[in-house]
Automatic annotation (TrEMBL):
It comes from the Eukaryota. This is Glycerol-3-phosphate dehydrogenase, mitochondrial. Pfam families: DAO (PF01266), DAO_C (PF16901), EF-hand_7 (PF13499). PROSITE patterns: EF_HAND_1 (PS00018), EF_HAND_2 (PS50222), FAD_G3PDH_2 (PS00978). InterPro entries: DAO_C, DAO_C_sf, EF-hand-dom_pair, EF_Hand_1_Ca_BS, EF_hand_dom, FAD-dep_OxRdtase, FAD/NAD-bd_sf, G3P_DH_FAD-dep. Residues 621-656, 657-692 form the EF-hand domain. Pathway: Polyol metabolism; glycerol degradation.
Length: 725
């Protein structure tokens, strides 16, 4: 009865607001429809490169040999790539340069959601803020478009909002229903209310105590780095000269004969791979560099004030068993008033984000306090039966959100809630701020403003409904053809289909025969993930230049499990070395650079600190038990264990393990990196395991299993059970 009464109150509380929002929604929907009527009537665009993508070398030649581009876009994140795609599909001669790799910055480190922003709508209603309402409305329109143009990379995701107080049920229900109404005809699926029993059935890990019920609504989810890459590759296919690892050293200027003022007319660029410098001339230069907005603006005018106020957002990845396969969770009010999402992603669980001021850096690192904050918030919502362990964190990363102030505003200190487009006196166009979901609308506004400011003519925007790389001929059952035609494992086929779309067949064609009965082709890079070796070869065609490009953005291995990524690295470097003709020295440099990336940027550093910073807090009985286990390997009682000691024990129980693997296993525990594990290091490990700071340690599991089976001579398993950083 109480549940029904709450539902009735919901209708009374939300009715008026819903009606108002619905009216605004219909009005803005009509305006949007009339604004984009030209898109439906436009002739189909033709791909300049429908089959093979131009090589990076040919793209660099185009940059160097083209007398003058119409538009040069600086920055290969979502917004910059979106600007390049918008420009080239307006039949403008377009260039795109990126200092690092496409999506190497903020665009690959998001929450992976395509959303309008429930909390922004709440603020819009509470403060009667029409501007904020329109921001949500625009984002919901863009959400729908993005799900349509890249169906292989994105999908609707139900997100549960658990309710623990009766009065919150009608309050949240009204807000979520307004979210549906603002989306109008572009609503993914209608939200609904769940009883306590049904909520626990769908999300059994949820804390039961005081749970009243739950509300489920829908937003979109995507593979952000692959989506960014798809935008850039689509621009390249339509004819944009697109090059990663191409840094802007300085802006070029010339004097306008009519006004006598200096105007930006291009950029001096450097190929980061070779060091060669060259000029790229363009009628219009667009600065779309995210957190690095001000560094490019200062190339134009050294005295100009900064507008970017960077904020760091940390995310963590934990094993998939922490959440259902297809249901996310929203914590609408954390202990410090922020919002945290808890979402299934790539068969793992992603949680975040934090929000704290930071310095602009190309290599942001996750802080331990942010990791622990997220874990503590997760504990508040999960059942006490689920032990949330620090050691279960498989990866952690920090992304820099480029919040901006509007230089055209009277209040230049106030953070702009949306994006800004600014055009300097010399004609440099800057697009900054905004959110992933609205990249296309931001690009459209930027190009419209640029065309007007530079008095250039072009066709209207053509990117609404324009299919991205791999999306055109993708179907939900495409993976079945991959299994049937090529003999791929089903999990691998599903991964290829959802990553490459209709280009998955090109990846499958490169896959080598395994020599097994099944699968026929497709050797995995690492056993527990569906990434295969031919993806490395194909990634080079997609402009991958480094091993980091492979583990971070062409595949997402580094974001999912740093230990697995490090295991896969030698094989990846070998394949790339063969394809790109690397020397042995170059291979070593690539391997070391990738390991440093995992250590500092993907959370591996914080894992090692869990051991080094752990005090040994064991009972005397525990110490004796672990001493006996240690001496099973250290039979000479030297006080340390080496690879040779471990091999002797394994041989006595008839187990063969590759020596390189044994070195890797010991290296996880060898804190002082002297090639051996001392007894004190072993006790630190076991203390950390007991406290939950480390989980899935292969060394601890190997020793425990060997001790239990020495007499029985059973097989010893040293497979990683979850890793943990």
């Amino acid at each position: 009865m109480a549940f029904r009464r709450a539902a009735k109150r919901t209708i009374l509380l939300g009715g008026g607001a819903v009606a108002a929002i619905y009216g605004l929604s219909q009005l803005s929907a009509y305006k949007k429809q009339t604004q984009h009527m030209f898109v439906d009537a436009a002739e189909p665009l033709k791909l300049l490169h429908p089959d093979e993508l131009p090589s990076r070398e040919s793209q660099l030649c185009a940059l160097q040999n083209t007398k003058e581009f119409d538009v040069l876009v600086v920055g290969g994140g979502a917004t910059g790539s979106g600007c390049a795609l918008d420009a080239v599909t307006r039949n403008l001669k377009t260039a795109l340069v990126e200092r690092d790799d496409f999506s190497s910055g903020t665009s690959s480190r998001s929450t992976k959601l395509i959303h309008g922003g429930v909390r922004y709508l709440q603020k819009a209603i509470m403060k009667l803020d029409y501007e904020q309402y329109m921001m949500v409305k625009e984002a919901l329109h863009e959400r729908s478009n993005l799900l349509d143009i890249a169906p292989h990379l994105s999908a609707p995701l139900p997100i549960m909002l658990p309710v623990y107080k009766w009065w919150q049920l009608p309050y949240y229900w009204a807000g979520i229903k307004m979210y549906d109404l603002v989306a109008g005809g572009q609503c993914l699926k209608s939200s609904y209310v769940l009883s306590k029993a049904k909520a626990l059935e769908l999300f059994p890990m949820l804390k039961k105590d005081k749970l009243v019920g739950a509300i489920v609504y829908y937003d979109g989810q995507h593979n952000d780095a692959r989506m960014n890459l798809a935008i850039a590759l689509t621009a390249a296919r339509y004819g944009a000269a697109t090059a990663n690892y191409t840094e802007v050293v300085r802006l070029l200027k010339k004097t306008d004969p009519e006004t006598g003022t200096e105007r930006v007319c291009g950029a001096r660029c450097k190929d980061v791979i070779t060091g060669k410098e060259f000029d790229v001339r363009a009628k219009c230069v667009i600065n779309a560099t995210g957190p690095f907005t001000d560094s490019v603006r200062k190339m134009d005018d050294e005295k100009i004030s900064n507008i970017c106020q960077p904020s760091a957002g940390v995310h963590i990845v934990i094993p998939g068993y922490y959440s259902p396969d297809n249901m996310g969770l929203l914590d609408p009010s954390t202990s410090d008033g922020r919002v945290i999402f808890f979402l299934p992603w790539e068969k793992m669980t992603i949680a975040g984000t934090t929000d704290s001021p930071t310095d602009v850096t190309p290599h942001p690192m996750p802080r331990e306090e942010d990791v622990n904050f997220i874990l503590n918030e997760i504990r508040n919502y999960l059942s006490p039966d689920v032990e949330v362990r620090r050691g279960d964190v498989l990866a952690a990363w920090s992304g820099i959100r480029p919040l901006v102030t509007d230089p055209n505003s009277k209040d230049t200190q106030s953070i702009c809630r949306n994006h800004i487009v600014n055009i300097s006196e010399s004609g440099l166009v800057t697009i900054a701020g905004g959110k992933w979901t609205t990249y296309r609308a931001m690009a459209e506004e930027t190009l419209d403003s640029a065309m007007k400011a530079h008095k250039m003519k072009s066709s209207k925007c053509n990117t609404v409904g324009l299919m991205l790389e791999g999306g055109k001929d993708w179907t939900p059952t495409l993976y079945i053809r991959l299994v049937q035609d090529y003999g791929l494992e089903m999990e691998v086929a599903q991964h290829l289909a959802s990553t490459y779309g209709d280009k998955a067949f090109d990846v499958a064609k490169l896959a080598k025969v395994t020599g097994k009965r099944w699968p026929v082709v497709g050797k995995r890079l690492v056993s527990e993930f569906p990434y295969i070796e031919s993806e490395v070869q194909y990634a080079i065609k997609e402009y991958a230049c480094t091993a980091i490009d492979i583990i971070a953005r062409r595949t997402r291995l580094g974001f999912l499990n740093v230990q697995a990524a490090e295991e896969a690295l030698p094989g990846i470097v070998e394949i790339m070395g063969k394809e790109l003709k690397w020397s042995e020295q170059k291979k070593k440099e690539e391997l070391e650079a990738a390991k440093q990336f995992l250590y500092y940027e993907m959370g591996s550093k914080t894992r090692s600190e869990q051991l080094t910073n752990t005090e040994i807090n064991l009972t005397p009985a525990d110490v004796d038990r672990y001493k006996n286990r240690f001496h099973k390997f250290d039979k000479q009682k030297k006080g340390f264990i080496t690879v040779v000691d471990v091999k002797h024990v394994l041989e006595s129980i008839s187990v063969q393990i590759d020596e390189n693997t044994l070195h890797d296993i010991l290296n996880e525990v060898d804190l002082n990196k002297n090639g051996q594990v001392e007894f004190n290091e072993f006790l630190q490990l076991m203390s950390a395991v007991q406290k939950g700071r480390v989980s899935g340690s292969r060394f601890a599991m190997l020793m425990k299993t060997a001790e239990e089976n020495l007499d029985e001579r059973d097989a010893v398993s040293v497979d990683r059970s979850g890793g943990g950083v």
